[in-house]
Amino acid sequence: MPSWVEEATGEYLKRMPAELKVEFREIPLAKRGRDNNPEVARLKEAQQILEAIPSGDQVIALEVGGKSWDTSQLAAQLEKWQMSGANYSLLVGGPDGLDPRCLQRAQQQWSLSPLTLPHPLVRVVLVEQLYRAWTILNHHPYHR
User: Alpha-carbon distance 48 to 58, whole Å?
Assistant: First the structure.
């Protein structure tokens, strides 16, 4: 990731409380090109993504066709996730999106935006929104 992404996500990760630990696990993109089939690339990525999900994790797929939440609704979701006591894996697909196998593994599908966002920006928006949702739940002044 570019340094501006590392810097921005690092700032929010520093602010996160111990009970809301966020880790990023990058799966290398499968080879793409004029002679490569995007379906094959997406399948290879799906296999790696599914193998990387820890056993017992609940899965949320970030998908443009997923449920869209405003910030208050995200805070309510975060509270439910925290109260469940489970760990969660949030999946972000490659340039061709998530393979149907990943979507089937997910208990929820969440749309950050109807826009297509570049991966570096998704990372920053995702961690900022999780932090913002936490601040709402904890009456922190960050969310005004």
Answer: 17
Mean pLDDT of 71-80: 97
Q: Domains plus CATH for the chain?
A: 3-27+35-137 (3.40.1280.10)
25 token code pair = 């696990």
CA end-to-end span of the chain: 30
Helix (H, G, I), strand (E, B), or coil: what is residue 50? helix
Give just the sign of the alpha carbon dihedral 19, 137, 70, 141.
negative
Handedness of CA 13, 115, 65, 101 (dihedral sign): negative
All residues at 6 or more sequence positions from 120 whose CB lies less than 8 Å from its CB, including other chains: 1, 2, 4, 5
Q: How confident is the model at residue 34 (pLDDT cuts 50, 70, 90)?
A: confident
CA 107 to chain centre: 13
